[in-house]
């Protein structure tokens, strides 16, 4: 059952243009093997093994399309090193980074009073012997009603440490995961939500109440992102910009069910993995990778060689004709 | 990556690849056939560290099912179940440490050598952090991060089959295997006397390295004084060994010592023990002949 299911599934996936296996290309078969039986004995032809003399060279760079927003027209092509955006998926490294961020986010301000902190006198409540009742010391004992908590939470720092190079690798692994799944959309700089002119005029003139403004923006954002299949029904979208874009940020605050907007300095590894996709400005992506490549860049001075790591170098339109 | 097309459009354009069987099984049942399934909204729900990172937490005295309940791994009764027993206690019999006492002593004056193995040297050369074309002295070894500053540097032979580059290296001491390995690779090794202060001066540039001992004798005085008068910067000289053990070590050609050139042919590096030679011992033979010629009654 599993074998049959696998074959039909891969065919169905190809029909829906989704890859069954994310990391390798599945060899395409036009018809099932059974229908190609012939009388002559044939040596099976394998698509995977090539000749002995041919060498296999792994990919060193990957292409990234820069789109315009919101039309998503492809505007240019850039390349990034495979060590930036094509790292293998390491769930354990992602886990380390997400847990590290969570630990350091903790406030750690829960605290319960111990028997010494509960207010009251420490007088012995009744004599040791003679009352016929259980022996009792002070009123604040943890055994007493209203007493302190023996081993309760204390104000403490839950922060942990993680090697910088591991954290940077986790960052780039998260970006690579998104890139592989096609959930990393890179746009031109100046990413902002275009609001309709008449709405903006009316809002500036003060003709709309706050509720009306919010309701309109919510509906507008919902419809735009819904049409692009980026909204609530498709896992939400995270927009990452270099600086605060008023329209975009206030819109995503109001229409939070469709996504979220973040500045580069507020982004965490967890944010990169949360929603359905990441929409990021091209200069912000470059800056992000520059900040998180400490395991690739050495601090040891070696005078001889200089290694050039491809960091978003422009491929198309050809640099001679590029605008910037 | 370009944005995804809606499913309907995709099905129309890629119909050729899709061979629809007469009974179309739903995608859900096909998914069920696969072992890898995920129903979570994001990968955050499927993150965990590797198996070896998680260890069983032992909480003793918390019930039988934990495996560490009741006696909590202490066995039945006895002092060790209730208290602590010193590790040297032998039930009352005089402990060994008092019966025999402690053995030996710790020599706090012994020089502590920084150990350097050949595999590390080769790795540094391969990475471009150590230059094999120049003489490798303690200054280069400390500055490139191979060793720290201690009383000296001893070259050892872990990775003796890995060393391929011919190097000219000067260290405090070297093991026999390390000397063999360096010379087999075509290199040259010399051992020279250093102190901690001397190494510090070399690293900071207050001394200039030399693999020759200080010149001894009145004939060298004038040239050294001339040097001192003309040079603007003062350089501290490197010390030579004074103790018997050190002098004998650096006189030994087997250690490639920098004083071994002072030995005469056939001379032993030891300052006390002489090599027995062809010359007879002085005095004994003449005594015997004298006795033989004398006429004695008894």
TrEMBL record, chain A:
Record region (Disordered): 110-157
InterPro entries the record matches: Ribosomal_uL4 (IPR002136), Ribosomal_uL4-like (IPR013005), Ribosomal_uL4_dom_sf (IPR023574)
Record keywords: Ribonucleoprotein, Ribosomal protein
Residues making up the signal peptide according to the UniProt record: none
Keyword Protein biosynthesis: no
One Pfam family matching this protein: Ribosomal_L4
Single GO MF descriptor: structural constituent of ribosome
Gene Ontology biological process: translation
One GO CC annotation: ribosome
The family this protein is said to belong to: Belongs to the universal ribosomal protein uL4 family.
Protein name, UniProt field: Large ribosomal subunit protein uL4m
TrEMBL record, chain B:
Biased composition (Gly residues): 64-76
Protein name as annotated: Ribosomal protein L18e/L15P
Region (Disordered): 62-82
Similarity comment: Belongs to the universal ribosomal protein uL15 family.
GO CC entries: mitochondrial large ribosomal subunit
Coiled-coil segments on the chain, per record: none
The Large ribosomal subunit protein uL15/eL18 domain, residue ranges: 115-190
The keyword Ribosomal protein appears for this protein: yes
Keyword entries, A-Z: Ribonucleoprotein, Ribosomal protein
């Amino acid at each position: 059952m599993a074998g049959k299911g696998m074959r039909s599934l891969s065919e169905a996936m190809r029909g829906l243009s989704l890859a069954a296996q994310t990391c390798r290309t599945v060899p395409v078969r036009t018809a099932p093997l059974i229908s190609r039986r012939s009388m002559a004995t044939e040596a099976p032809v394998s698509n995977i093994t090539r000749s002995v003399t041919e060498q296999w060279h792994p990919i060193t760079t990957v292409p990234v399309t820069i789109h315009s927003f919101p039309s998503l027209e492809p505007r240019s092509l850039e390349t990034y090193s495979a060590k930036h955006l094509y790292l293998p998926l390491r769930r354990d490294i992602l886990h380390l980074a997400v847990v590290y961020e969570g630990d350091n986010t903790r406030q750690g301000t829960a605290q319960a009073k111990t028997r010494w902190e509960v207010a009251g006198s420490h007088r012995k409540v009744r004599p040791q012997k003679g009352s016929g009742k259980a022996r009792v010391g002070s009123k604040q004992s943890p055994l007493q009603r209203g007493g302190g908590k023996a081993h309760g939470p204390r104000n403490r720092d839950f922060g942990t440490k993680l090697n910088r190079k591991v954290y940077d690798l986790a960052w780039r692994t998260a970006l690579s995961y998104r890139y592989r799944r096609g959930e990393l959309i890179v746009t031109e700089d100046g990413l902002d939500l275009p609001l309709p002119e008449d709405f903006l005029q009316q809002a500036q003139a003060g003709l709309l109440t706050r509720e009306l403004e919010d309701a309109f923006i919510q509906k507008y954002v919902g419809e735009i992102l819904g049409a692009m299949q980026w909204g609530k029904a498709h896992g939400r979208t995270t927009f990452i910009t270099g600086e605060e874009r008023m329209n975009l940020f206030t819109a995503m605050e109001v229409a939070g069910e469709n996504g979220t907007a973040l500045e580069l300095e507020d982004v965490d590894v967890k944010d990169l993995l949360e929603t359905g996709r990441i929409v990021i400005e091209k200069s912000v992506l470059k800056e992000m990778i520059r900040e998180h490549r400490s395991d690739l860049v050495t601090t040891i001075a070696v005078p001889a060689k200089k290694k050039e790591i491809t960091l978003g170098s422009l491929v198309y339109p050809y640099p001679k004709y590029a605008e910037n | 990556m370009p944005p995804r097309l809606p499913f309907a459009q995709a099905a129309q354009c890629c119909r050729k690849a899709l061979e629809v069987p007469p009974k179309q099984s739903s995608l859900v049942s096909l998914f069920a056939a696969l072992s890898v399934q995920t129903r979570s909204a994001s990968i955050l729900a499927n993150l965990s560290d590797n198996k070896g990172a998680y260890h069983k937490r032992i909480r003793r005295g918390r019930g039988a099912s934990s495996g560490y309940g009741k006696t909590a791994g202490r066995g039945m009764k006895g002092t060790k179940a209730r208290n602590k027993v010193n590790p040297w206690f032998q039930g009352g019999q005089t402990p060994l440490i008092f019966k025999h006492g402690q053995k030996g002593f710790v020599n706090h004056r012994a020089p502590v050598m920084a150990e350097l193995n050949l595999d590390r040297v080769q790795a540094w050369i391969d990475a471009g952090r150590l230059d094999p074309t120049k003489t490798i002295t303690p200054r280069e070894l400390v500055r490139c991060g191979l060793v720290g500053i201690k009383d000296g540097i001893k070259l050892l032979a872990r990775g003796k089959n890995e060393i391929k580059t011919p190097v000219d290296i000067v260290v405090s001491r070297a093991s026999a295997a390390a000397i063999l390995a360096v010379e087999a690779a075509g290199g040259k090794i010399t051992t020279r006397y250093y102190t901690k202060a001397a190494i510090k001066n070399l690293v900071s540039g207050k001394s200039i390295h030399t693999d020759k001992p200080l010149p001894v004798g009145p004939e060298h005085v004038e040239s050294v004084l001339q040097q001192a008068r003309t040079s603007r910067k003062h350089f501290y000289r490197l010390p030579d060994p004074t103790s018997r053990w050190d002098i004998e070590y650096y006189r030994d050609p087997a250690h490639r010592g920098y004083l071994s050139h002072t030995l005469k042919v056939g001379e032993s590096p030891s300052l006390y023990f002489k090599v027995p030679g062809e010359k007879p011992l002085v005095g004994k033979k003449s005594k015997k002949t004298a006795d033989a010629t004398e006429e004695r009654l008894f």
